[in-house]
Each structure stands twice: as structure tokens, then as C-alpha cells.
Amino acid sequence: VKELTLSKDLKGTKILITAGPTRETIDPVRYITNRSTGKMGYAIATQAVKRGALVTLISGPTNIDKPLGLSKFIKVESANQMYNAVMENIKDQHVIIKSAAVADYKPKKVSDRKIKKTDDNLFIELERNNDILKEIGQIKQDKILVGFAAETHDLIENAKQKIKKKNLDFIVANDLLQEGAGFGVDTNIVKIIDKNGDIHPFPKMSKEDIANVILDKIKLLLENKHL
Ligand code: CTP
Ligand code: CA
After folding, report:
1. Cα separation of 98 and 17, whole Å?
2. 115 pLDDT exceeds 80?
3. Is 158 one of the annotated active-site residues of the chain?
4. Does CATH number 3.40.50.10300 belong to domain 2-105+128-225?
5. Which tens digit of pLDDT belongs to each residue from 137-167?
6. Region 7-12: what's the mean pLDDT?
7. Across the chain, what does the average pLDDT equal?
8. What does DSSP say about strands 14-19 and 54-59: parallel, antiparallel, or unpaired?
9. SS in 3 state form for 27-44?
10. What is the band of 1 on the pLDDT scale with cuts at 50, 70, 90?
11. Counting atoms of ligand 1 from 1, which one is nearest the CA of 100?
12. pLDDT class for 225, splitting at 50, 70, 90?
């Protein structure tokens, strides 16, 4: 019933969404990843399609079915692949929502043979990945840019710093240590923080409802742009 009452209030808006974790290869059988399942990003993509947006979803590995009605769906594994897919598809977008949990580091050398166990300790040297969101922030022009911040401590302060550093319009911050928030669950507890520092806390909500709150906020920003 709820679906029928949703208006197509984002009709024609081009939105690029990233979702899920990334995988950074160590050797042919191993990789580094994180606990992201993609639920939040896929919920945003699904709701955006229902509201009439033209959605490009760039996804790391997840177990979720592809949402119906996407304009484009690109599956990637590594942060580098996600970076390339985002940059190739960014040009005509009105809105970018970066909900993916991108690996900050990747192994400096990828072994083409399985690493055998030898000594008691193994050291794998890691190097930084590109910060996709930060780079978009430098070239965003009038696009609306939305980031996520998953934190275990100093949530507000860290999130505010990310808004500045990455030139975001707003950030969706969630405290990973609260029950019913963060990775793997169907609910989340978020605070939306504006670039001017305003903080809007929300109670525990379904990821679907949070997706619509985020899209409502984007709609308002788009309307203000066109005044
Ligand atoms: N992000 C990104 N590219 C990266 C790392 C992060 O685009 N290489 C994006 C994420 O998709 C998210 C936002 O940046 O929208 C914040 O990610 P987060 O991991 O919370 O912040 P970092 O800037 O990576 O800082 P740190 O992990 O040290 O807290
Ligand atoms: Ca990070």
C-alpha cells in the first residue's frame, strides 16, 4: 500500500549510488574485505527507482538481488574497480550517494601464487586506495554529494570532518556500536549532518525508511537549487 502512495517525486533525477563492501586481493584464494552487506545502498537504490529516479548502482560483492528498474548496474570487486566505474559514470549525474564501505588499503603486491605458510608471523604490506568520495568532492560542480560515516567513536566530530574534507552536502552518520545499527541488520540508527553543521538524529528505523529520509533531503536540496 505504501508503494502505491509514493509519488514519482524524483522523476528524471539521475542518481549514482555505490553499495556494499570491496574486496582487495592478497593471492588467488584470499582477500581483505569488511562487514558491509550492501543493504543500505540497495535500499536507497530501490526507493529511488520507485520515486522515479534514473539510478546507476555500482556494487561491490553482495548477496542481494539486483533491484528492478535500474538504469545501470555495475558489479565490481576492488576499490580500484569501484573508482573506475564511478569516474566513468559520473558525468551526467545530479546526485551521488556513496554508501559503499570502500577498503582504505589494498595489498601492495598481489601474489599470483597461493602464499604458503612458513614463519610464525606473516607481514602483508598495504597501501592506500584512492578516496573516491574525496575526489568526487573536488570535481562535483553543482552535483549533490552524500557520504556515509560508520564510526565506533567520536561520531559527530568525525562525520563533520568528513563533510569538510570531502566537500559533501550532507553525511549519514551511524554509530556501529549501537544495537540495531550498522552492518548486516535491516535497521539502522543514523544522524544526518548538514554541511552547515545542523544535526538531525533519527530513531531506530528500517533501512527502507532511512533511504526515503535521505531521498527527501536530496529532493529539498534539488528544489532549492532550482529556485
Ligand atoms: N570512501 C570512498 N573511498 C574510499 C574510502 C571511503 O569513497 N577509499 C567514502 C565512503 O563510501 C563513505 C565515506 O567515504 O561514504 C566515508 O567513509 P569512511 O570509511 O567512514 O571514512 P574515511 O574517509 O575512509 O576515514 P576513516 O576510515 O579513517 O574513518
Ligand atoms: Ca574508511
Report:
1. 6
2. yes
3. no
4. yes
5. 999 999 999 999 999 999 999 999 999 999 9
6. 95
7. 95
8. parallel
9. ECCEEECCCCCCHHHHHH
10. low
11. 11
12. confident
Looking at the predicted structure, is the pLDDT value of residue 196 above 80? Answer: yes
Measured in Å, residue 225 CA sits from the centre of ligand 1 at 27
Nearest-CA neighbor of 195 among 145, 152, 149, 153?
A: 145
Q: Which of 33, 87, 133 to mutate to test the pocket of ligand 1 (most atoms within 8 A of CB)?
A: 133
Q: Which of 17, 18, 97, 132 to mutate to test the pocket of ligand 1 (most atoms within 8 A of CB)?
A: 132
Looking at all shown ligands, the one closest to residue 152's CA atom is 1
Rounded to whole angstroms, the Cα distance separating 42 from 60 reads 11
Q: Is the pLDDT of residue 227 over 90?
A: no
Please tell me the distance between residue 131's alpha carbon and the centre of ligand 1 in angstroms. Answer: 7
- The three-class DSSP label of residue 113 is coil
Residue nearest to atom 23 of ligand 1 (CA): 162
ipTM surpassing 0.95: yes
Judge contact between 183 and 37, C-beta under 8 A. yes
Average pLDDT in the 209-214 region? 98
Structural domain boundaries in the chain: 2-105+128-225
For residue 5, is pLDDT > 70?
no
212-222 b/e with 16+ CB inside 10 Å = b? bbbbebbbeee
Q: Which residues line the pocket of ligand 1, CB cutoff 6 A? A: 79, 98, 100, 102, 104, 129-133, 147-150, 162
Catalytic residue among 34, 89, 158, 167: 34
- Grouping H, G, I as helix, E, B as strand and the rest as coil, residue 93 is coil
Residue 157 C-alpha cell reads as: 566530530
